[in-house]
Please model this.
Amino acid sequence: MRPVAALLVLLLSACAAPRVQRKMSFDELYDEPVSRSAPARSKPRPQAKKSDALVQEMRSPELKTALVTFVSLARATRAKVQQGSVMPLSQVENWEQMNATLDAFLRKPARKTASLDVVRARVTLEAELEEDARAYGDMPAELADGVLSRMEQLAVRMAELRQLQLKPSRKGIRFAWPVDPVHITSVFGSRVHPITGEDRNHLGLDLGAKPGQHVMAAAGGVVLRAGWNGAHGNQVVIQHDGEVTTRYSHLSRLLVEPGDVVETGDIVGAAGKTGLATGVHLHFEVWRKEEPCDPLDELGPTPSGEEPHFVSSGSSESGAGTRKGRRPTVGQRP
Model:
């Protein structure tokens, strides 16, 4: 079992961001009561404009019905249970049914979902998780992980919808270096992994950095992911125009969250050595249509206007083992 309050703290810390507006309740989002005890609203609804027709068609009545049912059952269960009790089986099953409904909703392509549905679902889960934290002591660990997973997937879906709303640029993407100064310690391509000793493809550039050094967005876009990703440690993934993404790995801190819109040079995190890393650095990748590209073919000049520095493992403060250029010496790898 996992304490519900601890789960709530984890959720809120992962989504922390300055919010000026008051969080809307489930009832306000739907502009209708979910129980007979709630006051009915008689405010007339404004007539939908023609431009809203597509949005109206995309909204999911199945999701709306499932959310209303979920909230009603959750409130009824909490009213019958003594505060501090273990979450009853009926509420566990209620959460599991809600998760199954969300899975079906998230299987739809982003273009066929409405942002309002995503917002409603996420606000509902946050609100009910908060209420359950007050009412119950524990929540099954597997269920808790499932709820957090759906929350992350909803955040990713919101990021995808925001990206669809951005006007695509007719010009090609011009990438900027994500750290300054630029010291390349490992390039794109086949290499011997420094930890495992295995031959494997290196899908990006390793850039030397100091602990906590700012890592910047290489181009404008929408944050798709910001969280832990196995051997990559703390990772940020940004979606750009034309099915292009950039990935920033081994971060010590994440300073953005899924759904954030960033511009070139915006700080997305701090350099670190989380995940599978021998030391502090940034692992930077560029992907086009789900295929990794050599970042050196995509990046422009360094902020100083000079060619990047390639630093070998035997480099010293005197500059030995360091050279400038667009590629390292043939047959050598920094």
In short: The first strand starts at residue 2 and ends at 3. The CA atoms of residues 7 and 144 lie 7 Å apart. Helices lie at 4-14, 26-30, 53-58, 61-80, 89-106, 115-135, 141-165. Residues 183-324 form a domain with the Glucose Permease (Domain IIA) fold (CATH 2.70.70.10).
